[in-house]
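[job 0412] stage=complex_fold ligand=iron/sulfur cluster status=START
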Amino acid sequence: MSLNVSQAATRDSGDPLLELRDVKTHFRTPRGIVRAVDGVSFTLDRGKALGIVGESGSGKTILSRSIMGLLPPKGAIRSGSIKFEGREIGNLGRKKMRDVWGKEMAMIFQDPMTSLNPLMKIGKQIAEPLKIHLGMDNTSALATAERLLQDVRIPEAHRRLSQYPHELSGGMRQRVMIAIALACGPTALFADEPTTALDVTVQAQILDLLEEQRKDRNMSLILVTHDLGVVAGHTDEIAVMYGGQLVEMAPTRVLFANMKMPYTEALLQSIPKIEDPSHTRLMAIGGRPPDLVNPPRGCRFAPRCPYVREKCENEMPPLEPAESPGHVYRCWYPVGSPEYLEFKERNEQAAAAGADVPVAIGGAA
Ligand SMILES: Nc1ncnc2c1ncn2[C@@H]1O[C@H](COP(=O)(O)OP(=O)(O)OP(=O)(O)O)[C@@H](O)[C@H]1O
Ligand code: SF4
Ligand SMILES: [Mg+2]
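[job 0412] stage=complex_fold status=DONE, emitting structure tokens
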């Protein structure tokens, strides 16, 4: 059965926290219109964690900024609907969205140094939104700030209130950002690459902290990353973006066990395995992401896909439901299909014979 885009990735879950239907966000540029988000639909339930993954330029940040109403100047939502707790927010505009930020939705970014004010003490930076949004006086806002620092596991919380950002480590600064984001008790927290600037041990601690806080507060978490490995253990569902489109979405366990889209498969192959020798280089996906001013007319992954056939180049595959509930994908010849298996065998034989495989996935970075 073929469903249209907006039907396929949304489901009737009763009362979703977030519901996107066919959202299109464009940028006007001298080169033409950049279709940064091109018809994305999905729903997210309250308290759940969604990972949005995809390569650089796939539209992850612009999608989350579209939901938050925080688009850069030349960007605008051209069509579609974004509902938050049943209320249409896609057309609210920045001024009205100010009431939503902090209290209902909050966002943390990759580099806390660019978001924290270097000249303002930590305590004041956390207290500010409490005073503005919750009307607290200075004393109770600072007391709440101290409790929030304890919540995000910052030692010596009281002393930190009077420190400046540069006096803290990168991991501590990211914890402060999380404290600020949590201050007004948001229903949804957007975290855009929150750990890429941190070393691996601190990354794991921050992801654990986000998960703990999400569960404690029954908050939804939207975790944006280019790394499927980061979301594997910390999300309920994963949405895979490619070329501005949602190309696969499924409950996390289903996606890892039964991915359908060759692009998702390629992303997974690019994760280094624990058993790999330390000198093993990261696998990269061969070829370049599509130009979003002139995207391919058929499947956007066709120029890079080892399983591409004529139909893929001419017709855009619709988002189709898979067998498992909540699993949708966009591919004519999905992983495991007879056509996929035929090409896989042929490519493997060609590679074993030393021939050039038509399009390669998994070249060394
Ligand atoms: N201010 C802008 N003006 C024009 N195009 C933009 C602008 N910001 C983003 N884009 C384009 O929108 C597309 C999606 O960008 P986006 O930042 O969402 O990618 P991303 O998936 O978050 O990538 P990354 O992993 O590098 O952060 C890209 O093609 C990008 O070039
Ligand atoms: S539709 Fe075709 S080109 Fe696109 S991912 Fe599927 S097999 Fe590859
Ligand atoms: Mg981004």
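The chain is about 35% helix and 20% strand.
[job 0412] exit 0
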